[in-house]
Please model this.
Amino acid sequence: MVPARPAILQVEHLRVAYHSPRGVIRAIEDASLEVGEGEAVGLVGESGSGKSSLARAIMGLLPSHVARLEAGRIVVDGRDVTRATEREWVRLRGNPAAIVFQDPLTYLNPIMRVGRQIAESVERHDPDTTVDRRVVELLDLVRLPASCARAYPHELSGGMRQRALLAVALACRPRLLVADEPTTALDVTTQAEILALIADLRQRLGMALLLISHDLAVIASACDHVHVMYAGATVESGPCDTVFARPAHPYTVGLLRAATSARDAERRFATIRGDVPNLAAPVTGCRFADRCDLATDRCVAEMPPPVAIGGDPTHIARCWESTRADSPEACT
Amino acid sequence: MTGLGSGAAPTGGPVLELAGVTKTFKQSGGATVQAVKATDLRVDHAETVALVGESGSGKSTLGRIALCLLRPDAGRVLLRGQDMIGLAGRALREARTVMQPIFQDPTSSFNPRRTVRALLAQALPHIEPDAREARSLDLLDRTGLSPGREYLDRLPHELSGGQRQRLALARAIAMNPALIVADEPLSGADVSIRGQLLNLLLDLQRERGVAYLMITHDISIARAFADRVAVMARGEIVEHGPARDVLANPQHPYTRRLVAAVPTIGVGDGRPRSSGPLRS
Model:
């Protein structure tokens, strides 16, 4: 895939496993993605897809005592950070890439005023500025009143906490914002406000976005490009318009039908049979094969390679049967 | 499958009626919050009503009042015509078995040290001990946990999230309820298995006439699944009616705002994908 803009983030064939006394969990089998400078990219997946592990790997936040980066590369702003040490990560985190999470209350210090927490981030990344003025500027940027600087996290609503966490992240002047389910715990109207704020910040600051969500509609409304992850592998990627209109992977097809609450002639809801996979079990072929109606012997035996769909180099899917995926029998 | 015990209502008409229900909570500082204000709500036999609203709207409080887990300050709660407010103790517990709850996080409603077998046996007090295993297997099978024998000796943590939600459903239908009150039953479920759970609920309704009161913030689920929708804001039902009308053509400004805030994929409905104001 040739990026239109220079890449701020490249992940190539990443493999991550968690080793515990009870066994090995292969959280990421083979994940690749790319985020161009200033671009908004979505990463969609269900629980156990590996999307949050991928976000943590990008930020050097994998639990080092159990997680092993077994193959592949992570390149942030042209620099290979795959083997970066914790000491190097301390300097790398925040700039060029910063992260916000689903539950801001876990990541904000409960006994420190919000303004102080933003100030800490400013002092670390912007030592030459007048800290107080920059804190007010950042609160204004995320549309929080200046009085919030004196508040403790528990005194703020869920939406305001997410704004506060955004301010901490933006204090680092990131060129890439990684947002891991930033609106999942919020009401729809608050979700719309936060997504609009992120879109506005992207435009004003020229910041790239990697938005991770289980919700296809959230990705569709906020991103230009989407990657679909299933059981540790990026199985389909392409421009949102293309992927949502002409999905090539049977999993994407099923997910789209489920997400739009599609119902068949007998008024039954579209489903993908089976359950999300058990990552502890070793699998040789395509991990979706046991839930896929198109699966053949080859799917069970061999992991399909990424191929361009319909000659479009921006639309990639990993499926031996991708040409049949959007046919009516693909998903029941 | 015929159960002993209460049994689903054989007739049409209302299963649940709330009339003029009011609930006020006192806060620690002495201030009061009126969580539910003089609210009416009716759920008929074999009907699905979605109670939609944001956090703090009072929808879960109303759900807890419907389940008789919370006593309202004023108003009436009728379950198949029986006034529930005056009941207490054993009489209340018995009358209440006609309805069963399902919560967002089934994990917290299971004793983590009990096997699936023991958890189901708890819900089958009206069945002879010898017949419980056969009935349990039947329930597991009905809820898509098949073959049931593979699940009987598992502990809750040995099930996936979707399987736990199915077990919660199996337990709820073990009592042969006329009404299931489900508070955000799909929020914890993965998108790909959502359809399986919804189909299961549809089958139960078709076969046994179970009514559902589904409390949810997810408007797309309400639109797809419910017959009627009641929209709640600040303790009041601001709009109600057939699901299609209310959500396709909302009248109340609050409902309009709520519907407009829902992001859409917009595939196959002829509209451009980015209908919201969210895309830069």
Chain A touches chain B through 48 residues (CB under 8 Å). The CA atoms of residues 14 and 72 of chain A lie 4 Å apart.
